[in-house]
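Memo to structure team: turn this sequence into structure tokens by end of day. - J.P.
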Amino acid sequence: MVDLQQQYQNIKNEVDIAVQEIINTANFINGHDVTLFQNELAKAIGSKHVIACANGTDALQIALMALDLKPGDEVITPSFTFIATAEAIALLGLKPVFAEINKDTFLIDTAQIEKLITPKTKAIIPVHLFGQCADMEGIMKTAEKHKLFVLEDTAQAIATDFYFSDGTKKQAGTIGTIGITSFFPSKNLGCFGDGGALFTQDEKLAQKIKSITNHGSKIKYYHDEIGVNSRLDTIQAGILRVKLKYLNQYIEARKNAANFYNKSFAYHPNIKTPLTAAFTDHSFHQYTLQIIDADRDKLREYLQEKEIPSMIYYPVPIHLQNAFASLNYKKGDFPITEQLTQSVISLPMHTELDNEQLEYITENVLNFFKN
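Reply from structure team:
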């Protein structure tokens, strides 16, 4: 699904030098490269503040902690996403309230959000799934109307543009109250281990987030609030600084691969290619098909026989996971979400895909439907 080894080989010299320099200084925690990376990423995505942390799940939890929400407060988020989004909500004693998604884009249905708001609602977490932005203009209007926080989960869509109706644009994670991302190795901007970051335009909020990541401390051994220990280590920051220089190139490679897939599968009666919403660019963290009137699981078995990897993102929606049984959601509550879990399949998508590989993948997908 992701060829990290070949990606490394293409930047090996730069990465090796960066890592060796950090080892030579032995400044492994909160080293200079962490500060440099935060500043460089802030400039790249157009955010006033970037605060690095240990991973994307921590980033979600820290963002919620920074807003001083109370146990029982409700947070609206989609059920069709990785569990970390809802998990962070539940870990703080908050209540996830799930929303339906758009069947074509897989993004949270903005029209549904208004119907779910109650006096206990305090925040919305839209997920910029698979590489494109949720309808942030619509979401921000709803949030402003009801005085709600907006936390953008942009773990899969870093450096993706959102287009406002007035012609302006901003990047994913820089529009809401706080944006979060993950640097898990398979992400569009991934390190060689775990890593994450938070984005905000608010100076006071940035200082609070920074304090929370460091045990609630601004001055060593003086703790103003309950925090956590969540740091991006210096070696990972050094690697990310190298890869950040290639991020636009990496996204362009993903778009080219997606275009190849789109052209190969166009107008096929059993294959629905991903739709990009009019208000967003698409950086294709995943390339996800919907299989129509055919057996998705048998297609996956067929591809496996041909040594072509594929994945199901996601086989069980969060509202039907055992971990959230206490919320009393039931099968049928979100028909679009539930139908998609039975029909989606993601094909290999990464920066090193070449035409020979793409031809082999697409030919075998198409051959499956001829059998």
